[in-house]
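Raw record, unedited: Elongation factor Ts
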Amino acid sequence: MNVKLDDIKLLREQTGAGIADCKEALSRSKGNLKKAKEWLKQKGFDKASSKGEREVKAGIVDVYSHGGKVGVLVELLCETDFVARTSDFKNLAHELALQIASMNPLSLEDLLFQEYIRDGSMTVDQLVKLAIGKLGENIQIGRFERVALGE
């Protein structure tokens, strides 16, 4: 099937996936954008499972304060400093800090199985796996701390 360039551009804008992956997804889904997104999502999860054993020794610490009443520190780890400096990685760290601030998870396991606050159709674990698929490196949440005024 011939895939339209405009469809590839649109899918790439919506998912952040590579051009070749977008073209393949659209081709496999016969031009259906929704099915192409699902295929890319599954491919990201498959990619994530193959990277789980790699050592993470780089990353960032993100700091978030919600109106001076709640503060969060989150350590997000990856394999290389190159990925740690990308906007996608920094955005993931910030999204995790927002999740922790609003949902107050008691442990890392609790956090990973929570429904993602911006998209109830996925868990935080799935959000991290999507980032692994997109960035191509193992990503792990190291640790986090949430402090609320008066607690």
